[in-house]
Amino acid sequence: MALQALKNIHRSQQQQGNGEEQKNFPALLEKYKGEIARALPRHINPDRMVRIILTAFRMNPKLAECDPRSIFAATVQSSQLGLEVGLRGEAHLVPYKKECQLIPGYTGLIKLARQSGFVQDIYAHEVRVNDEFTLDLGMERNLVHKPKIGIGGFPASDEERGPIAGFYAVAVFKDGSRTFVAMSLSDVARIRDNSKGYQSAKRNRKESAWDTDFVAMGLKTAIRRLCKYLPQSPELATALSLSDVADKGREQHLDLTDAVMGDYVPVDSDEEEAEIVSTDSADTYEKDPEIKAAILAMEKAKTIEALDEVYIRFEADFPDDRLEFLKREYLRIKEKIM
Fold this sequence. Notes:
Blueprint (H helix, E strand, L loop, with lengths): L1 H14 L2 H14 L1 H5 L8 H14 L8 H14 L9 E6 L2 E6 L1 H10 L3 E10 L3 E5 L5 E5 L11 H4 L2 E10 L4 E7 H10 L1 H8 L5 H4 L1 H14 L6 H14 L8 H6 L7 H8 L2 H9 L1 H11 L4 H12 L4 H18 L1
Antiparallel strand pairs: 1-2, 3-6, 4-5, 6-7
């Protein structure tokens, strides 16, 4: 059986010395490719999948330390979502402890949002201090961004436009209507600082994606926030959940059998955290003056759109534990309005 073949790969790795483990991993993939192919859905080409894994392996040799079943599970799950792992940035294979995690990139989220059938277009941009940027909220929401103009009427260089001031993301629905989110630099930095992956990299004195590609990570942050308020296909919902679980420093528990059968369902991190918040904690949050002010502001909203605006405004101001409580209050008030 193919699943047994994957166990054999893992066993073969463990039998090798540390110096040989990474060296032999590509050969092991090639050796068991025929057996693995029998476990894959018909639309996934085993040769292509092995090439994707080997490319990811060359870019990050630490993948050799992961259980190979999780590497294949992540790759198959990526194919099931319709995302390409690799340099295009739609998805990435990232080692976490002994598990290979599938991390959707912002271009992958954009792709899934467009393919959902609800969204005609979706995009994000960074705003720099020398750009012209106007944001109106309230009854007539509007966002205008005019990058600083350079030679020939084209946007000026990043150096001329100045340091980053923030990010925004816009979605255009099939009927032509639009919605957007805008995030200041401090909003994005706060989310970065709360990311378990970023915290781990800092503790271990390693570079993270936030250090090497801050703009792309800022764009992804804006896209993720926007996608949470859009109608979602099952693929987009799964991709967002995978990203959320990884950001909170948890294992994704990708299972090869579920991935192959198309049955993988990520753990709903919001529901999981809701279960462990005690009544005493809830009482504490309810007495928190900042939480009380945020809930009061949300309760004054008369429409879903107004409620979303209030929630988005407060969302970046609370750490994870208080934000989960605030989100449950948001959902409660939203249900009342509906």
